[in-house]
């Protein structure tokens, strides 16, 4: 059982690495205005999708053959959920790539600093959510939950700033809407990383902190 659980963790870490790369490629392509890099996001997503299927099949195999109970069962159920969140993160990266490609076809806006900051935080959340999963680090998982508040705050700022900009410059409406969509995708990435942190807390403590539940 231990060796099979270790293999599941390894597969999840591989997927997480792909997600980090996809997010970095998508946002850096937008910020540095390098449209060619968007193609890499689509290639990485294929690997994420392959990993999604592999992890689900591996989890089913362990459940069918080992009949795990208690903590091991919680861990496997959490891995199934984490796997889904990572796959959806890949989808969000692809959405950023599509929107970013549209954005690069328009007159550039000068302020993308908040988008860059959101991307940095989201990447940190992805990395640390997987770190805390592998280590069973519940305290780190709790810190990730707090990081999501900063992502939400930045998303609201991007919305507000771009709406204000559109009022004074109708020619930039489409570019502003593109940045708003990218901010929304980054916020969703943060939400998925938060889900992983919540699953870590559940897997290693049995506490359900979703929907405002408290960890004590």
Tally of structural domains: 1
The CATH superfamily label reads Phosphate transport system protein phou homolog 2, domain 2
Give the total of beta strands.
Answer: 0
What top-tier CATH class fits best?
Answer: Mainly Alpha
CATH architecture annotation = Up-down Bundle
Strand content: under 5%
CATH topology call? Methane Monooxygenase Hydroxylase, Chain G, domain 1
What is the H/E order? HHHHHH
Shape: elongated
Offer a concise description of the structure.
The protein has six helices and no strands.
What order do the helices and strands come in, and which of them pair?
Layout: H1 2-32, H2 38-66, H3 70-104, H4 113-135, H5 138-168, H6 173-205
Helix pairs in contact: 1-2, 1-3, 1-4, 2-3, 3-6, 4-5, 4-6, 5-6
Q: Could you explain how this protein is built, in words?
A:
The protein is mainly α and 216 residues long. It has helices at residues 2-32, 38-66, 70-104, 113-135, 138-168, 173-205. The chain has a single domain (2-212), classed as Methane Monooxygenase Hydroxylase, Chain G, domain 1 (Up-down Bundle). The chain has six helices and no strands. The chain is elongated and about 60 Å long. The mean pLDDT is 91.
Output the keywords:
216 residues, mainly alpha, Methane Monooxygenase Hydroxylase, Chain G, domain 1, 84% helix, 0% strand, elongated
